[in-house]
Amino acid sequence: MAFFLETLLGGLMAGMLYSLVALGFVLIFKASGVFNFAQGAMVLFAALAMARFSQWIPEWTGIESPIVANIAAFAIAAVIMFVVAWFIERLVLRHLVNQEGATLLMATLGIAYFMEGLGQTIFGSNIYKIDIGMPKDPVFVLDSVFPGGILINKEDLYAALIAAVLVAALSIFFQKTATGRALRAVADDHQAAQSIGIPLNRIWVIVWCVAGVVALVAGMIWGSKLGVQFSLATVALRALPVVILGGLTSVPGAIIGGLIIGVGEKLSEVYLGPFVGGGIEIWFAYVLALGFLLFRPQGLFGEKIIDRV
User: Fold this and answer.
1) Using alpha carbons only, what angle is made at residue 278 by residues 272 and 294, rounded to the nearest 5 degrees?
2) Which of 133, 199, 203, 215 is surrounded by the most beta carbons within 10 Å?
3) 225 or 242: which carries more pLDDT confidence?
């Protein structure tokens, strides 16, 4: 029982990180109706900015406290992501209002390649470290209940808590604020939202800024765990099954989908892996997503699209 709970908790913590990356996809899709293939590049770009500025700030200012340097680097990286969001809206999205979804999709692909190249040009292509002070030592809990206790990785626990707080804040933002309601209105119909006075361009800037902050937090956490390298852009591929499972238009769906994928990967690898030679954790999420595409393409919480002719 203790081993099962240990595996379950590990899956839940990994699932929260998947949910965090998946939120970036959901935010952009809710506001523009397009699947943002640039989300992985945004995670990489934001992580590179924070990693490099956390190194440069002590060199430029003489600040010795790593906490102060990290806070300043996070703030600068957030400002950079806001500027990136403004340029994306001004130079790309503004000219593609009411265009076909395929056009917007290709635009996000172009943005992704541009941001990857720009990140390499500005920040370099080496592997960088982000040290935000999260403890990496494991800890045993519930010693009095289970013999030997349950092993939990402190870094994964703190990362999951950070992701959970951000996910909760975004859920409240979408449900309880006027801007959140305007975002949902824009997602339903661009022209109708404009006709009642909702400024589409401003809404797109806001949602890309929010997605940029989400990418920054995700990049900070993944960079702390794995190091900041260009393979970090592929972390978005791990979130694709999450949005397919939860639904492209649902913030709660991104959360539930991430938890299901995280737990499913860990449990299947531990309990089914020995029978098939291992490696289930790599492809489990994609097989599950394929099943949903076949039988419920809108996902668990997505809206069913009905075309009237």
Assistant:
1) 65
2) 215
3) 242
69 Cβ contact list (under 8 Å, min separation 6): 54, 57, 58, 63
Query: Pick from 148, 164, 145, 144: which is nearest to 156 by CA?
Result: 164
Longest CA–CA separation in the chain, Å: 66
What pTM was estimated for this model as a whole? 0.83
Strand partners, 152: 139
Q: What is the DSSP letter of 289?
A: H
Q: How far apart are CA 17 and CA 263, in angstroms?
A: 12
What backbone torsions phi and psi does residue 27 show, to the nearest 5 degrees?
Answer: -60, -50
Tell me the C-alpha distance between 129 and 219, whole Å: 11
Phi and psi for 113 in degrees, rounded to 5?
-65, -40
Q: What is the DSSP string of 67-91?
A: HHHHHHHHHHHHHHHHHHHHHHHHH
Q: From the centroid of its chain, how far is CA 143?
A: 34
Q: How far apart (Å, rounded) are the C-alpha atoms in residues 128 and 223?
A: 8
Decide if 193 contacts 186 (C-beta within 8 A): yes
Distances in whole angstroms, Cα of residue 190 to Cα of each of 35, 50, 247, 293: 16, 34, 20, 26
Q: Taking the chain, what is the end-to-end CA distance rounded to the nearest angstrom? A: 55
CB 141 within 8 A of CB 149: yes
Summarize pLDDT for 46-77 with one digit per residue, the tens: 889 998 998 889 888 887 788 888 889 999 99
Tokens 């299901």 label which residue?
A: 260
Q: Round the CA-based radius of gyration of the chain to a whole number and report it.
A: 20
Q: Which amino acid is at 192?
A: A
Given a cut of 90, whether residue 79 has pLDDT beyond it is: yes
Q: What is the DSSP letter of 151?
A: E
Domains within the chain, CATH numbers bracketed: 2-295 (1.10.3470)
